Known about the structure:
17% of the residues lie in helices and 32% in strands. By secondary structure, the chain is of the alpha/beta class.
Amino acid sequence: MRFLFALLLAGTVYGQNLVPGRFLVELTGAPAMKAQDMGARRTAIESEQAAVENTLRARRALVVGRVHTVANVLVVQAASAQQLAGLPGVRRVEPVEQFDLFLMNALPIHKVPEAWAATGGMANAGKGIKIAILDTGIDMSHPGFAAGDMTPPDGFPQASSSENLALTNGKVIVARSFDAAPVTDFEGHGTGVAMTAAGVQHESPKGMISGVAPAAWIGAYRVADWYDGGIRSDTVLQALDWVVQDGMDVVNMSFGSVGRYGSSHTIYGDAVRGLADRGIIVVRAAGNTSGPMTVDDTASIDRVIAVGANSATVSTATQVVPSAGPAMDGVASSNIGETEHAPVSGPLVDVAVYDPTGWACDASLFPAESMTGMIALLERGECDFETKLANVAAAGALGAVVFNTADPSYDRSGEDVVTMIVDNPDQIPGIFIPRSKGLELKDLAATVEDLQVQLRFPFGKGAPRSLASFTSRGPSVELLIKPDLVATGAPIYTAALKEDFDPDYCPVCDPSGYISTQGTSFSAPLVAGAAAVLKSARPGLSMDEYRSLLIDSATPFVFLDGTTAPVNSAGAGYLNLESAVSSTIAAAPVSLSFGSGGGTVDLTKDITVKNVGAAATTYGLSLESADPVQPLLSASEVTLEPGSTATFQVSLAGGGAEAGTYQGFIRVADTQSGAVARVPYWYAVEGGPASSMTILDFTPATPRVNGALWIYLRVHEQSGIAMGKNQPIVVPVSGGVTVVGVESATNLFPNAWLIQLRMGPIPGVNAFRVEVGDLKRTYSITTP
């Protein structure tokens, strides 16, 4: 398989960059948010930091920022980390990271209008809830942020400067930036994200548009640097400090990186985890690096909601797809209509084998079960379509293809297509095609042995059937199930800056003020807005209960072929806000990872179910999985009063399991209301062959003739487990590229490899092949 490296540079790889000479110095004292009296603790921290600052000054290091609430941290400029080593009162020193942005209407897909109707209408959607948007700023002139009759709550608006205060209104109640420039957006990304989460309803070039939570307040925190657009961990920490102090309820972060160590070992990760501990709902874009184990950085934290992206594109094509020859467009029978219908596949049988007319109007001509499991091919004529389909169905056919007649009394041309009227909604599906295509199928049926066909129908109500090609996948480096769920991210129609589109200067810009764009950047704020609607509609629940309601009530993600998406691709499924606001079930944990190991396993984990409804009910407990190895549940049902909980065990035990993934869902069903929660579970048996390679980072972005290129690459089994012991073989292919070396890069990226190359002596394509066992991938890059 060959990849154009320039496309990787442009779209599918996001790298982790360290900011030279800039460090996070964490002090030993606890941050203010961990104290009962935050104000008193913040005052004490100021004294602690002043003492350390004196020592830093003596070492010629400069303090350029302070964080008190989410972390006890000084942001320091220094020549090197060694200059800061051994400081008294310091717990750890880490380099500042630079993050990348994860570059409508999706609302019906996620049952947002239905959720509005169930919670008092759009005017109440997110009412009283404050959503923090940490991003590139906001364009306050956009009609998506008009205040209308909204007014700020007591103590607001808040701003970091008088200039920013002038940019607030009754809708956008916080405006903070962390440099000398205003909060005004300059890339469009933050404007599009904020619109998706909570923009107010207004007219766009494509009709009425709204965010998920139009009644929620927005806090705009510009964390992108005004001069270079970079988003750095020190700036984000300072923003999170204010998020807590401003009392925000939900935080959206549509940026990140492939973390070097995962989130459990960093100052920044601990601060984000602390927000969840304080009850703030944290939503993070899962990332735009396709491949296993690419949901990293803070998205991999267990209590952060990591959101992947599904495609919003729904098929409008009705087709007959033979196993030989091209697909043929047609029209579905009326009993299919606008409803969902999975593809129907089977061997093609020409009814002329039994009925010389080919019309299928005489049921007596077809022996019993003569068409069992098959797709019938028949011609228009003599009798009505409902009779034709009923006759072949009685012989066992799964579906029918009907082609037009040459009789001019029916149509001007045999190439015309019509909708076949079939009143019985339970009748088999049929597709009507032009005469020429039907005759082609007759020829194929006569000449191709075991000709198979598939009948494909429109997706109907718009249920997503494919994941976005770019969306990051799990497991996390700690082997947790990630992402937690998916939402629409390709494409999504949202607000943009009113400027000419230039992806190098302004990635979310359009002269109209609106744009169709894509990325987990925009699937995440759909969930952040949903969190605001949920919390407003159901006050008083815990953060973890809101998180479970959003995740475990998701609609199962089923591909077009009828298979369910792996849990480390789509999590629990795709966002269903209507289910979240009505569900009675909160589960802890929201997903269950048994990790990885050998084919003999004996593991048990607990799940606690809470009745968050208003009435006592009985919950049925069962499994959804097609795998040969499945866990056992310690109970088949539990009865709970409102507010009460029950804990049961999930045991995975057995031997001889082959290498691969064993996964599914623990289904909790409310027998009274019909609410269902599906808790994903996952276990990987190690030892399978290499299945995929993922480029995690590379430098420089544009290598030169005879220049060096460093590539960080990870190899995975099919289960997603990294193969850290299988060193890749790198072979030059063309362009004069040479291999300098291959070595372990685990100190930077878990279980990864560093491939060092030198580009060829002349401008042009440099190709090289990476091999691990039978897995081979060829990459190419063009030097200018």
